[in-house]
Design goal:
By secondary structure, the protein is α+β, with helices and mostly antiparallel strands. The protein has a domain at 315-569: Dipeptide-binding Protein, domain 3. GO terms for molecular function: peptide transmembrane transporter activity.
Length: 614
């Protein structure tokens, strides 16, 4: 083995590491899992409980995506990345779909770190780990991956790894990551879930450019066919090195996976109905209630499926760009929040299928509810003096968004919004709202999907009643992506996922540094020292209890800052598929677990016959 270019015998190195570990800190541990604020339940299992190890291999599954693609390198932040590209690559460890904050072996068979003082982690690679061309995955490949991300990836990704001080190769199968912080329990989870690239494969490639040239990975699938910008098909690698690992038994059963691209959700849905692809996640309440009446549904060849997944609901919101006037005024943003009429939109347009989001972590224990508890107040009190008085008031309140009578007029809330604007120095001239300098208020919504206009127009009508001129600017997906990267918008609808184990990604979403970084995710432009400090407390939380409490505190501050208008969501996920798939009896709690489904050959033939002869 080689350690800092000096040869050390395996026995000597092992003994030395053990003695150093015992001397420096008794809590350093080497385990075949990572469990942060949790206890692993499946460490000794030969397969995950939500897997069918006897599931047959074969068949195909296809699904849709919106827009287009031009880049197979999803890490450099250039162009439009490609759906399914993650299946080409393995990570160091893999998530449990039943346990928050728990990872099990993949490329790394074990890991060494101190859970009480996490300032480094050592990953021990499996000697069996192989890229798809048969070459070994080594510590040099891991170091290359992280060094490249830190120097060449998009700024958002670099920020995600901002606490990584250095990556060192200890031996061909051991790599050590040292952190800048004295204690960052979230970092092992972050590092373990990043795709590992081959150093040799990138020798003659430019990492910073868009590419449709296949990239060497170690994952379960290979690229089979690319129709640039329209579709991409993957094929299962029969020689996949990791197929017998506990996390992979009964998994990756389809011989082929295909992603088909469409311009809009409406066109994509028509494509599903006609059998152009086989699996669809439905996000339109009207479709779910009223549009699944076509013959294939009635004959049982298309199945509807509802899954309740125990993770935070997708955060759907209208985002204010607070970098620009008048959105840099919290009172203006508060007034616009009163103009949003969820009750009427849900009744008239969404068939009553949605709930009003009241939290950035809805449907989880992380969501702040009611007035702050005594423990939450202990966290918040040192920061309250730094908050705007309106934000401080909202942080300490039993937060609820305004409720209308669902009549469609929203009269009472619009009167409140008008009063807020007048008290804040805005005026009305010729029925038009003007700012303190007499300039008319004009708003542009930036969108890239047709369907969203349906729920935006009622809100725009209410803004017009407040004297606000509002327009919708619809652009294609590549232009929308570029404008959002460069933060060139006033307001936009957005979906943002959240995790049961929030960590460093919160800094990318809400942190001051991210507010000015092109390609990062703080679209609202939040620059609030209280938000920054709470995020750091979340990242360094010593226990699950403290993680939950600090996340609730952050939730309260974000809501009360009126940086976004949380709109609507669902505590269920809706799916439809052509009836040729089966799934295990035991369902995972934190995911649909589609990778553990398999193809039913008899049903596949029935579907093929129907599509051919209809």
């Amino acid at each position: 083995m080689y350690l800092n270019s000096i040869y050390v015998s395996p026995i000597g190195l092992t003994f030395g590491l053990c003695m150093a570990t015992m001397h420096l800190h008794a809590a350093v541990q080497t385990t075949a899992y990572i469990a942060i604020h949790n206890t692993p339940h499946y460490a000794k299992f030969q397969a995950m409980p939500y897997a069918n190890i006897n599931a047959p291999k074969g068949g195909y599954i296809s699904t849709s995506s919106l827009g287009t693609f031009d880049n197979l390198n999803s890490m450099n932040g250039k162009g439009s990345s490609t759906e399914g590209i993650n299946y080409l690559f393995d990570t160091l460890m893999d998530s449990s779909l039943d346990e928050a904050g728990v990872l099990y072996p993949l490329l790394a068979e074990k890991v060494t770190f101190d859970p009480k003082k996490t300032n480094f982690v050592i990953f021990h690679l499996s000697p069996k780990a192989r890229f798809s061309n048969g070459t070994a995955v080594t510590a040099e490949d891991v170091k290359f991956t992280f060094d490249t991300i830190q120097s060449k990836a998009n700024l958002g990704f670099q920020m995600y790894l901002s606490d990584l001080a250095k990556t060192e190769v200890l031996s061909p199968t051991q790599v050590k990551m040292t952190f800048k912080s004295e204690h960052n329990p979230d970092m092992p989870l972050i590092l373990a879930r990043i795709a590992i690239y081959s150093k040799a494969d990138w020798k003659n490639k430019d990492y910073t450019k868009v590419t449709l040239q296949p990239i060497l990975g170690s994952g379960p699938y290979l690229i089979d066919q690319i129709d640039a910008g329209r579709s991409i098909r993957y094929k299962r690698n029969p020689n996949y090195w990791g197929k017998d690992l506990a996390v992979n038994r009964g998994r990756y059963n389809f011989d082929q996976m295909k992603f088909v691209y469409y311009r809009s959700p409406e066109i994509a849905f028509e494509g599903f109905k006609s059998g152009q692809y086989s699996f669809y996640q439905e996000k339109n309440a009207r479709n779910w209630v009223a549009e699944y009446l076509f013959p294939a549904v009635k004959s049982g060849l298309v199945q509807k499926y509802t899954a309740k997944i125990e993770t935070p609901a997708l955060t759907q919101s209208l985002v204010f760009n607070t970098r620009k006037a008048p959105f840099n005024d919290i009172h203006f943003r508060q007034a616009l929040t009163y103009a949003y009429d969820f009750e009427w939109i849900n009744k008239a347009l969404l068939y009553g299928q949605n709930i009003r989001l009241q939290s950035y972590f809805q449907n989880s224990e992380l969501a702040a509810t009611g007035a702050p508890s005594a423990k939450e107040l202990d966290i918040l009190k040192p920061y309250l003096h730094q908050l705007n008085p309106l934000q401080r008031q909202g942080t300490l309140s039993n937060w609820k968004y305004p409720v209308s009578d669902a009549s469609g007029f929203n009269r009472q809330n619009l009167l409140i919004a008008r009063s807020i604007l007048l008290k804040s120095g805005y005026q009305f001239k010729n029925a038009q709202l003007v700012d303190r300098k007499g300039n008319p208020i004009q708003i542009e919504f930036l969108i890239h999907q047709d369907g969203i206009q349906r729920t935006l127009l009622p809100y725009i009508r209410n803004l017009k009643k407040l004297g606000i001129q509002t327009t919708i600017r619809q652009v294609d997906t590549p232009q929308y992506t570029e404008r959002m990267r460069r933060l060139d918008f006033q307001m936009t609808p957005m979906n943002m996922p959240q995790s049961l184990t929030p960590g460093a990604e919160q800094a990318q979403m809400w942190g001051s540094q991210a507010a000015d970084e092109i390609g990062n995710y703080n679209y609202s432009g939040i620059k609030n020292p209280v938000v920054d400090q709470l995020i750091q407390q979340i990242i360094r939380a010593p226990s699950r209890e403290q993680l939950v409490l600090h996340t609730r505190a952050l939730d309260r501050v974000l809501r009360a800052g009126y940086y976004q208008i949380l709109t609507y969501g669902n505590d269920q996920n809706w799916y439809a598929y052509w009836n040729m798939y089966r799934q295990p009896d035991v369902k995972p709690k934190l995911s649909l677990g589609l990778e553990y489904w398999w193809s039913d050959s008899t049903q596949t033939e029935k579907v093929a016959h129907y599509l051919k002869n209809r």
